[in-house]
Request: fold
Amino acid sequence: MNADSLDGRLLFAIPKKGRLHEKCLELLAGADIQFRRHARLDVCLVKNHNIALVFLPASDIPSFVGKGNVDLGITGQDVILESEMQEHVTETLKLGFGKCALQVQVPEAGDIKTVEDLAGKRVVTSFEVLAGQYFKSLDDRLQLPEDKRTKIEYVGGSVEAACSLGLADGIVDLVESGDTMRAAGLHAIATVLQTEAVLIKSSTPKHPALEPLIQLVTSRIAGVVAAGRYVVCEYNIRRTKLHDAAAITPGRRAPTISPLEDEEWVAVSVMVEKSKIANAMDELAKIGAEDIMIFNLDNCRV
Ligand SMILES: Nc1ncnc2c1ncn2[C@@H]1O[C@H](COP(=O)(O)OP(=O)(O)OP(=O)(O)O)[C@@H](O)[C@H]1O
Ligand SMILES: O=P(O)(O)OC[C@H]1O[C@H](OP(=O)(O)OP(=O)(O)O)[C@H](O)[C@@H]1O
Ligand SMILES: [Mg+2]
Reply:
């Protein structure tokens, strides 16, 4: 493939490995963005749209998008802030995966209990910028003199090992389940930020003609993300209980009510957030709903 074959195509950056990669491939499949990636090739043409996918490290994507070298990208909010590209990129969608927290961690058994105890000591991290900002404001607040300020040291990965190797008094790293942190004998004493994966575009697009395609891809991905957040709930309920049922499952606009042959009863069909569905089913059963059924969505536009 040469640069000519990319001419006029929308360039869409996808994390090439790591925690976000698989989820991004699922999103692309859900949005019917079809491609075949040849082994070891990081650029590939999409078959059914005027798009080329560019597989890049998640941490490089904010600057590629911010500088307009690619038009669209998926990465973590943490890496956008770490690369100081938030002024140059526009976040168009939260994607609901890659959720974790950037936390200050110290050995569970040690003397350091608070970030104030850690201030002035050695902190190892892959997030030099965010950790630097966090400890600068802490050191300022504690009025630490120049020679007593917190020392931030960069490592590229396996940050959790730094304390047991004697290289650090504390670390700043990502925590999702907390398994890695606990396995290293660490615990969190502060949260620097919460993050999730987002779709971003350049704040000053180089190719305005691609805007309609950017809109199309964005709304397709939004549909896949929304489909993952909702289920369809169907149940039968006595007409007299309809008011109570609608209070439990109000739907996005309103529940769909269909008549049944038995005039005392109606069928209800309604979208419910996945996180609320178990409670909603309990409540519906309590007011006498029957035949409550839940259906997953493959895709939707809401
Ligand atoms: N444990 C996790 N749970 C959820 N999201 C995570 C987790 N770890 C990282 N992320 C998100 O994924 C982004 C990329 O991190 P990841 O560690 O996958 O990339 P990487 O370091 O390039 O890959 P690898 O760790 O395979 O070398 C992070 O910036 C963060 O937004
Ligand atoms: O709280 P948990 O669910 O355990 O997840 C947190 C871990 O996930 C990430 O590491 P990753 O697996 O990407 O390895 P890395 O440190 O080599 O990047 C992150 O850097 C933590 O180490
Ligand atoms: Mg990693």
